[in-house]
Amino acid sequence: MTPVPALDTQPMVALPSFPVRLRLESVHVDFPAANGPMRVVDGIDLDIRQGEFVSIIGPSGCGKTTLLNIVAGFVKPSSGRALLDDAPIEGPGPDRGVIFQEYGVFPWLTVRGNIEFGLRLAAARVSGAQRTEIVDRYMALMGLADFADHHPKHLSGGMRQRLALARAYAVKPEFLLMDEPFGALDAQTRTAMQDLLLQVLATEGKTVMLITHSVDEAIYLSSRIVVVTARPARVRTIIDVPFGYPRDEAVHEDPRFALLRAHIRTLVMKEYEAQARQAAATE
Fold this sequence. Notes:
Helix content: 25-40%
Mean pLDDT: 86
Distance between the termini: 45 Å
Radius of gyration: 19 Å
Strand order of the largest sheet: 6-7-8-3-9-10
CATH superfamily: P-loop containing nucleotide triphosphate hydrolases
Structural class: alpha/beta
Shape: globular
Number of helices: 7
CATH class: Alpha Beta
Order of helices and strands: EEEHEEEHHHEHEHEEH
């Protein structure tokens, strides 16, 4: 059997038909702190190609969400460049849909109202007939059609996250940026949501960046996994996931899955140990 370290590969060699859509070049981010600037991201270089599903994994507080916020346009690098289709990212845009762990739905709007919200904004506005067609499509796709007139407080956690997905997809973003979207769900619901996400991606086709603490989730969903270091975040390694799409639960039984899980867990635990040493040094 191939030893685990053999899975620790260089970034995937791209086919000409899959262009680079997102490029981070020597990205640094410093946040103000009481004792002077605190470096959160330190020299990240990363390319994400059209249609890739890339997960970012590393210790809590290492700077993963900051990376996603750069791509979303919420945070600007202190130095370096973040490029989308070779143009600098200047701010948020309808080409990028963001889904957070906290569901990100409007409690005062119904299911239908939440999904159609973005379709009423200038950047993605469509006619009333188109809006109804799009909303009906995503309610059906996400299993929410029977709850069209319900408010989020009447939905389960999994249903609220399905609603967040539907709302993000309705405006047809090219990129889906997901920050621990299933972290608050129970194990069974989380698995169901992962399968639903794979089904939707097979239907819609998107480029995805996922922030997660779950090694199993990263392997099951991703085409590549970026392991980052304890703060400040640097790329420790980039791993190609050796499974094609479509995927189903049988992937978890593949011996390579267990090897890869053990390998990535070892890498992440080493970064947690480094983080603990950093904390002890500042006490």
